[in-house]
Amino acid sequence: MNRGPTMVDVAEAASVSLKTVSRYINGATNIDPKLAERIREAVLALGYRRNLAAASIRPGWTSRMLGLIIGDLGNPYYSTLARGVEREVHERGYLLTTASSDENGQRHDELIDRMLEQRVDGLIIVPPYTGGRPWNELRPPLPPRVLVDRPAPEGDGYSVLADNARGAASATEVLLAEGATRIAFVGDSELISTMAERRQGYEEALLAAGLEVDLSLVDHGVHTDEQAAGAVQRLLDDHGADAIFAANNRAAIGALRAFRARGARVPLVGFDDFESAELTSPPTTVVSHDIAHMGAVAAGTLLTLLDGGVPAEQTTVLPVTLQRRGSELRVQ
C-alpha cells in the first residue's frame, strides 16, 4: 500500500526544515512569506494532508474544528442559525461540524461525547427540551461552550438569547389593538424555555388589557405544522378564537394551512420569521430577531473564549422587532 506524503516529503520539496513545515501546518503566522509560499506550493503539489489522529495527542494541539448541536435540522430556523455561525467561524479558519439532537437528551449527550472524541476546540449548543447530562458531570478538560437560543438548564455558562417574553407581548398587543378578545396561543412544548417565555409574554399582555387567561385557548403541544393546523382548527371551531398568536414558525405555517382549509382566516401574528411569510395572502406579520445574527453573536462569543478573552456579557439578550405585513388585521 502506498503511503501518503509526509511532512518530511514537504520539507524536502520546499527545501526548508521539518520544524518550519510543522509550524506552517499548525497555523504559525510568523514564518518568512517566501518560505511559507514554498511550503504551500509543496503541500499542493504533493497532496499532503496532516494526520489529525497523530497530531491530536500533542500538547497544545488545536483541531481548528468547532461543534454546533441544534434542535432540528429540518427546521429552517436552525439552518439559518447554523449559517450565521458558520460564516463567522469560517473567517477565522475553523471548520464547523453541525448535528441535530432532535430535542432528545440522550442523543444530545451522545453527540457531545462524539464531538469531544473528535477534539473540537469549542461547542455551540441549543439545549434539548428533554434535558441532557449536566455539563459539570463531564470529565475535564472540556472545551469552551456557548448556549444559543435557550439557556443552560443548570443556569451557568455563556448564552445568547432572544427577548421572547417582550416579543410575545408585542404580538399579543397588536392583536388586541385590532379588537380581538379571544386570542389563541399555539406553540410547542413548554418544556422548551423559549415557549414558556413566549407564553408568559402572551399572558402578561392579556392581563394588562384587563382580560383573563382562558386555558381553553392555549395549545402548547404542537411540534409540526400539521399538528398546528389541527390545533388551530379546534381553537376556531370549538373555542371561538378570534385571533391566533403562533409562537413559532411551524405554528404560523400550520395556522395558514388551517385558514386555507376553512376558506377563511382570522388575524394572525407569528413568532420567528420564515421564508414564505411575505408570499402569503395577506403577508404574515411576525415578531422576530435576526436569527443569523444570533448565530454570529454566539460564534463571536465562543471565539472570544478561545482567544483567552472574557465576553462582555454572560447572557446576551437580542431584541425582537415587529414586522407588520397585514395578517394582523381583521377581515373587513
UniProtKB/TrEMBL annotation:
PROSITE patterns to which the protein is assigned, alphabetical: HTH_LACI_1 (PS00356), HTH_LACI_2 (PS50932)
The keyword DNA-binding belongs to this UniProt entry's keyword annotation: yes
InterPro entries the record matches: HTH_LacI, LacI/GalR-like_sensor, Lambda_DNA-bd_dom_sf, Peripla_BP_I
Domain HTH lacI-type: 5-59
Keywords: DNA-binding, Transcription, Transcription regulation
Any one GO molecular-function label of the UniProt entry: transcription cis-regulatory region binding
Name this polypeptide is given: LacI family transcriptional regulator
Organismal lineage: Bacteria, Bacillati, Actinomycetota, Actinomycetes, Micrococcales
